[in-house]
Amino acid sequence: MSLASVLLTVALAILGLSLLLVLGRFVLGPSALDRLVALDALVAVIMCGLMAQVALSRDSAIVPTIVAVSLVGFLGSSTVARFVGRKRSGGGS
User: Fold this and answer.
1) What is the pTM of this model?
2) CA distance 38 to 13
3) Helix axis angle, 3-28 relative to 32-57, nearest 10°?
4) Residues 41, 19: Cα–Cα separation, whole Å
5) What is the pLDDT of residue 55?
6) Do residues 42 and 76 make contact, with C-beta atoms less than 8 angstroms apart?
7) What are phi and psi of 22, to 5 degrees?
8) Residue 43's closest CA among 69, 77, 9, 82?
9) Which end of the chain is less congested by CB atoms within 10 angstroms, N or C?
10) Alpha helices in the chain, H assignment, sequence order
11) For 34-79, what is each residue's pLDDT tens digit?
């Protein structure tokens, strides 16, 4: 086993731990905005895990999945933030 594969395996383990912590915040978050931030962090951790898997396996077939996950995460976050902003400002257009 090379040093790079050991480091990537350690990185995947740390990402797994951070995934558990983010899921805990998502479940226990007291407000909707806390859950939104946790969901953004969840998407980021999943993307990092996929990128580490690409680096470990040296197979670039997963890259379009990473792009799709990032786009869906961005669109979802911006949509929810827009609706929360409208709700707080009084509802206008």
Assistant:
1) 0.77
2) 19
3) 160
4) 9
5) 85
6) no
7) -65, -40
8) 69
9) C
10) 3-28, 32-57, 63-89
11) 888 888 899 999 899 889 888 888 888 989 989 998 998 888 888 8
Residues in the chain: 93
45: exposed, middle or buried (Cβ count in 10 Å: 0-12, 13-18, 19+): buried
Which token pair is 67? Answer: 């792009």
Token output for 58: 């040296």
Torsion of CA 24, 76, 78, 92, to 10 degrees: -110
Label residues 50-72 b or e (16+ Cβ within 10 Å = b).
bbbebeeeeeeeeeeebeebeee
CA distance 56 to 12: 10
Evaluate if residue 90 carries a pLDDT over 70. Answer: no
Copy the structure tokens of residue 24: 């805990």
